[in-house]
Design a protein that fits this description.
The structure is a single chain. This protein has a domain of 147 residues: Rossmann fold (3-Layer(aba) Sandwich). It is α/β, with parallel strands linked by helices and 219 residues long. The radius of gyration is 17 Å and the shape is globular. The strands form two sheets. It has a six-stranded parallel beta sheet, with helices on both faces. The chain has a two-stranded antiparallel sheet with strand order 4-5.
């Protein structure tokens, strides 16, 4: 999903969502309502370190949500905390003629509202299957994994007329590495050691406006 496409943009910045655009891991917030919070948090941590296959780990975590009513989305949305500096980052990128996109291993049911509220240009996430107002514990459609994140960056850049040499990827977990590898500039944001080791640059302060000097958008 996205807002209206630009004829041509100067550059593209693509971010991960959970623990990057926002402080939270949304699957963990959902799992708290299902009574599986500790189990899901452990699986999430292992997946982010690259110890587990992301798709398999996501399906295992989503399975624990079976039986939750879809009113849980509204309750969780109220608890999501946007990372410091996000509005400043979006404003500065737009002022410089760039686009901001996010691609998430999380869920459209929560990412859509976030993206619209922050004025993002592109976004993509997983969907949760809901039948009769109840979560089935199944991902609806193909999983947004590391390959899908890379594909999103490449396709959004092509659609906006942005060469890959003017793309930036920001992430924190193993699932972001392919996307970061495809971008001209990769930024590890409060990231796992394996991600910091492979990124071009690292930001250790949980404030995304700290990325702006790296992009030449603030002195």
């Amino acid at each position: 999903m996205s807002t209206a496409a630009s004829a041509s943009a100067r550059f593209l910045v693509v971010l991960d969502v959970d623990s990057t655009l926002i402080h939270d891991e949304v699957i963990e917030l959902l799992a708290e309502h299902a009574g599986s919070g500790e189990l899901v948090a452990d699986i999430t941590s292992r997946a982010m370190r690259g110890e587990l296959d992301f798709e398999q780990s996501l399906r295992e975590r989503v399975a624990t949500l079976r039986g939750l009513g879809d009113d849980v989305f509204g309750e969780v949305a109220e608890r999501i905390r946007v990372t410091d500096g996000v509005p400043e980052l979006v404003e500065a990128v737009h002022a410089a003629g760039g686009l901001v996109g996010v691609v998430s291993g999380g869920f459209h049911e929560l990412v859509d509202g976030l993206a619209e509220g922050l004025g993002l240009d592109r976004w993509r996430a997983n969907r949760l299957e809901v039948v009769g107002g109840v979560l089935t514990g199944v991902v609806d459609g193909a999983v947004v994994d590391a390959a899908a994140k890379e594909e999103s960056l490449r396709s959004w850049a092509a659609d906006a007329g942005v060469p890959l040499r003017r793309t930036v990827a920001i992430g924190d977990g193993a699932n972001d590495l392919k996307m970061m590898g495809a971008a001209a500039l990769s930024v590890a944001f409060c990231a796992k050691p394996a991600v910091r080791a492979k990124a071009n640059l690292a930001v250790e302060t949980r404030d995304l406006s700290q990325v702006l000097p790296l992009l030449g958008l603030r002195g």
